[in-house]
Amino acid sequence: MKNLFKSWFASAAKLTPEQSSRLAKWQHLQETDAVAEFEHARYVVVDVETTGLDLNNDTLISIGAVAVLNGKIALNDSFSIILQQSKISHRENILIHGISGSAQQEGVIPVDALLAFLDYLGKSPLVAFHVSFDETMIRRAMRQYLKFTFKHAWLDLAYLLPALWPERLRSHRSLDDWGRQFSINNDDRHNAVADALQTAQLLQVAISKAKQDQKTSCYDDLRGLERRFRCALEYC
Amino acid sequence: MSAIHTSQLSFFATHAPFNRMDQPHLLWMLERMQLGYYAKGEVIITPEQGTVQRFLVIKQGMVQGEQNVADASDADSWLELSTGECFPLGALLAHRPVASIYRAVMDTFCYELPLAAFHELLGLSAPFRDFCTRRIANLLEHSKQIIQAQYTQSASEQQSLNSPLSSIIRRTPVTCSPQTTVRQVLERMHELRVGSMVAIDEDGRPLGILTLPDVLERIALPQIDLDQPVIGIMTAQPTSLPPQALAYEAALSMAKQGFRHILVVENEKLVGLVSEKDLFSLQRVGLGQIGQAIRYAINTEELQQAAADIRHMAHNMMAQGIAPEQLTQFISTFNDLLTVRVVELEYAASEINASPLANRLCWMALGSEGRLEQTLSTDQDNALIFTVPEGMTADGVRELLLPVARRINETLALCGFPLCKGEIMASNPKWCLSLEEWRSLFLNWITNGTPVALLHASIFFDFRSLHGALNLGEELRDWLSRAACDYPRFLHQMAENAMFNRPPLGMMRDFVLGKEHKLNLKVNGITPFVDAARIFSLAAGVNHTGTTGRLRQSATHLNVPVTEVDGWINAFLFIQMLRLRHHYEASANQAEVDTEMLDNLIDPDLLNELDRRILKEAFRQARKVQAKLAQIYQI
Questions:
Q1: pLDDT score at B441
Q2: How confident is the model at residue B143 (pLDDT cuts 50, 70, 90)?
Q3: Phi, psi of B283, rounded to the nearest 5 degrees
Q4: Phi, psi for B320 (deg, rounded to 5)
Q5: How far apart are CA B550 and CA B548, in angstroms?
Q6: CB B30 to CB A76 under 8 A?
Q7: CB–CB of A78 and B4 under 8 A?
Q8: Domain boundaries of chain A, sorted by first residue
Q9: Residues of chain A positioned with their CB less than 8 A from the CB of B8
Q10: Which phi and psi (to 5°) does residue B321 adopt?
Q11: Which of A113-117, A145-149, B181-185, B604-608 has the lowest mean pLDDT?
């Protein structure tokens, strides 16, 4: 009840004209060509940290993102932001992502943070590990603060990777499992950017494998592989 | 600033040259970098791509530069690069295509910097420029600095030559009255185990000093009456300094005047005595003094002391960052002196010099001592050449010589040169031969080329005359140079044999380690160079026995550019340096140095990142030397 009230209260705030025009500008950007070859495309790999794992009640604390541009991770094309929290998350939660109470309070006003993310994202297709979580958290925040429904292309590595390496389906479930498999270390697990970087490296590995084994050449092909694999899983 | 950078900084903080670059330059570089992925087997750069367009740093994985057969001497060939290493520097600097095909030998991630940014960074960052332009030389320099820093630390725990003599005086000097008899003085010195005695008057003023070497010269040899007053044979008015004088002034006085003791005198009274040894333990002066001590040594105890001094000195020289080439030469030179003195003393004791064999014997150093490449862990390898006097047989001469040689070997063992396990010593009748016997033996090895012959050749052909009739050694050397050229098949066999000790670099992992997870620096690091140098020099008729000398002097004959030979030599010397350091550290950890305990096995994980990289580079050079050998002898 308290949560519901709070979210209603927060949503009462209106966007300023400037914020509205930023949002409109993003909405009018030209859609990206999802069949562009890997060598001529930009994908944004994203990871979020939240107050918890409850998709309905927990909130977004930070977004980290890394761009894969023409097949390579561009180190200067990355994004990291902490959203200002009205209520600091629990100690156990802070211990996971390491964003302290004061850092949460000093974060960016959520509306501005989300607009900054959209500016960074442009219309590049998104990639994440366990998309349903990241997508839900971001979409909920967008609806709450920006009053719009964030619809975007997402690719889920949690399905694409086992689609490419089916023999590892049972043994490899988490980001850590796959990171270990390809010796892609992450010195700062649960830091959104570090996780996004690790995910982006896995995307590079996946692209290389998909090109070689499946003759795929673009984002849409990868989504096709993911979708077929999910269907197959459901029939199993 | 982009958020990704901080997470990558920790990687760059652990690898040269990035760990020496200013943070703003590092961030500038990161801002312009991309992270690329190459699956196992994927080509990263090829000569066909034209002028290289990017500078790469391996974040993880391994990249191999495949040798371009057409251009085998190119420095980019034989590469095997792993985490933290950069490529292709030469091609980037020269604005040219690469000479080798760079291929990922396992799944690899590389940071990549565009060409323009690379050149801009060269202008911005001095450490980066230094690294790229000087490469291996720079790595070696950096490593040397680290070593110096480590050793200066331990040296500064001791006193320095800038400390006053008052802080160095260890004990009250042993004194006597001027009228004490020589006999009493010697007994006292023996009893207290001191090397000197100072005579003082009633007011404590020093009148004269007697030191151990004086005993030989002034007492034993002239056979003086031991009951006369000691003052008569003492050095009168010995050099003295006030307690405030600094240690280096004492060192200078000793060096100039050739004394080994300086009296410390305050208000005319003797307050202390500083010996050369006291200064040695502080500092690295007076190589000459150790030499003197050895030349005048009269018994095993003194020689043992000298051997300890040599080790100590070697440590101090390492602290100064003296190059391994000089250092091993230094160790070998003093070990030569020591060996010569042992031989002299034993010849004297067994009256060889008065026998018909006088001037007919040549003591030879073999193996590493022959090459002037001794480290602190060297067992003895030696042999004797003799000429048979009229009316005697070679066997007759041997019968006389072997017991003497046996005592020499044993005394050397007491001085820290363990007996050779393979019995390659002058006391073995097989290695105590006349000049004619040596010739026919060598000829036999050269013409037969059995495995045993090849093994022996690798030890014996590094012989160097140490003592006695040196011309015998020279004659044998000249003869060998000619003979080796007459039998090309032999050199071919030697070359084949030399290929067995491969540098421990694998295709997939960086180092190939044995069961013990250790690298053998001698067998797999030093030996490929030493073996190749021996063969090159035999083929080129170079009489030098040292590996670096052999390589340098054979370069023209081999038609190898000097820069490449320098690369081999640097690599060889770096491995030597690691060995020396390993031996030093091992012996520093135990009170009694047991040289037999010193090994050449190191765990590469215990090396710092930089040394590990240089060592890999050094092994690569060893491969190149072997490749040259294989090319020449078509193996």
A1: 94
A2: low
A3: -145, -175
A4: -80, -5
A5: 5
A6: yes
A7: yes
A8: 36-180+187-235
A9: 75
A10: 75, 25
A11: B604-608
Mean pLDDT of A211-223: 89
Dist CA A206 CA A178 (whole Å): 11
User: Structure tokens of A143?
Assistant: 């609806």
* Nearest-CA distance B143 → chain A (Å): 28
Residues in chain B: 635
Cβ pair B34:A188 closer than 8 A: no
CB B210 within 8 A of CB B196: yes
Indicate the fold that domain B165-282 takes in CATH.
CBS-domain (3.10.580)
Q: Structure tokens of B453?
A: 């012959």
Per-residue pLDDT reduced to its tens digit, B60-84: 888 887 754 444 333 333 567 788 8
pLDDT score of A53 more than 60 = yes
CATH superfamily entry for domain B287-486: Beta Polymerase, domain 2 (3.30.460.10)
Q: Which residues are within 8 A (CB) of B169 and not within 5 positions of it... i.e. 6 or more apart?
A: B243, B264, B271, B272, B273, B274, B278
CA A104, distance to chain mean position in Å, is 19
Supply B182's token pair. 């020589």
Tracing tokens 């004297």 back to the chain, one arrives at: B348
Chain A residue with CA closest to B34: the answer is A74
Helix axes B435-448, B470-486, angle to 10 degrees: 20
Compute CA distances B557 → A53, B10, B309, B537, B571, whole Å.
Answer: 74, 48, 41, 9, 21
Round to whole Å and give the CA distance between B62 and B457.
39
CA angle B347, B349, B355 (to 5 degrees): 55
Q: Taking the domain B4-133, which CATH number applies?
A: 2.60.120.10
- CATH superfamily for A36-180+187-235 is Ribonuclease H-like superfamily/Ribonuclease H (3.30.420.10)
Q: Which residues of A touch B (CB under 8 A)?
A: 64, 66, 69, 71-80, 182-185, 187-188, 191, 193-194, 197, 200-201, 204-205, 207-209, 212
Query: Contact A113/A81 with Cβ under 8 angstroms?
Result: yes
Question: DSSP string of B578-624?
Answer: HHHHHHHHHHHTSSS--GGG---EE-GGGS-HHHHHHHHHHHHHHHH
**pLDDT at position B153:** 43
Strand partners, B206: B200
The CA distance from A203 to A224, in Å, is: 15
The residue with tokens 């005697």 is B392
Q: Are B583 and B522 in contact (CB under 8 A)?
A: no
Q: Which residues touch B336 (CB under 8 Å, ≥6 apart)? A: B365, B369, B466
Please report, as a single letter, which amino acid is at residue B187.
E
pLDDT mean across residues, chain A: 87
Over residues A61-79, mean pLDDT: 92
CB contact under 8 Å between A69 and B34, yes or no, is yes
Report chain B residues whose CB lies below 8 A from the CB of A165: none
CB contact under 8 A, B8 and A185: no
